[in-house]
Amino acid sequence: MGKEKKTDRRTRYSRMVIKDAFLELKRSNKFNEISITQICKEADINRGTFYLHYRNTMEVLDELIEEVLETKLDSPDFADMDYDYSDPFTDNKCRVPICEIIRNSKKYKCIFLDEELTSYIASKIMDRHVENFVKSMTEKTILSETELYNFYYFRLMGCLAMVRKTIDYEDKEWRKVKDFIDNIQRTGVTPYLKV
Known about the structure:
Order of helices and strands: HHHHHHHHH
Distance between the termini: 74 Å
Structural class: mainly alpha
Radius of gyration: 20 Å
């Protein structure tokens, strides 16, 4: 039993140093420029250790994306934030909106701000969250499932693009932009039309 804990701890440590090395390399390289050799050198491990845990760099990326999507609102990164995280289209509270994760996490920014990874990341987020959104909205609207899938994708891609565009904004300025966009999504442009 003691040996099992030791192995688990070593496994967790090895996976952590591999992911940390990947993130460090990602800060200054495009995803497709990062090699397993570079990761091993940065992590100070051998290739055998890498292959014991991952088959390729895509698996490392996938695990990091999953870590982000598992982030909870009570995470220390978000403890001091005073903001309503409710989704403007459902009664459910978001665990943490992806836009806030990206803006507030130095660790993961290098992944989410990479335009070459946007479609891939969006597909991972869609796989995880779109079904709940569609189910909730189907009960509340007359929109078809196809329309709701398309709308979710539109919102998600817009979110990722706006975070990239506004990444250097101060929090107050960012909240103003986000609140405006959320309001437009809820009410349309009618409240903003000239009379």
